[in-house]
Amino acid sequence: QVHLMESGGGLVQPGGSLTLSCTTSGTVFRLNGLTWYRQSPGRQRELVAAIASGGHTSYADSVEGRFTISRDNTKNTAYLQMNSLRPEDTAVYYCNAKPVYMTADYWGQGTQVTVSS
User: 103: number of CA atoms within 13 Å, CB side?
Assistant: First the structure.
């Protein structure tokens, strides 16, 4: 059974930093494409950052240069380092895992990030 667990969300002031973690089980982690999405009230879920099984990364324009996605295959964990946070980054952040050997993908339950003074 595949399971994803996000952690690291919270309340932070504008300009601050947070690091989100996504730990997975039930898959061959190193073969997962991993993507962070976010969703704020009244808006569609949007892609934030992605890292392929080979390590290639991509980012939404809105977070390019501020956020960094990474992975540690020895810990079955992906990370999203978020710097220079803005109020518009406030959202529930979700982790998605897509094993290259499967057609299905999997979601975590989400972690709330609130950027406010």
Answer: 0
Q: pLDDT tens digit string along 84-112?
A: 999 999 999 999 999 888 889 999 999 99
> In this predicted structure, what is the pLDDT of residue 100?
86
3-state secondary structure the chain: CCEEEEECCEEECCCCCEEEEEEEECCCHHHEEEEEEEECCCCCCEEEEEECCCCCEEECCCCCCCEEEEEECCCCEEEEEECCCCHHHCEEEEEEEEECCCCCCEECCCEEEEECC
Give the tokens for residue 69. Answer: 């996605």
User: How confident is the model over 72-86, as pLDDT tens digits?
Assistant: 999 999 999 999 999
User: What Rg value do the Cα atoms of the chain yield, rounded?
Assistant: 14
92 vs 104: CA distance, rounded Å: 22
Total residue length of the chain: 117
Asked whether residue 1 carries a pLDDT value surpassing 90, the answer given is no
Dig out the tokens for 27 from the structure. 């898959």
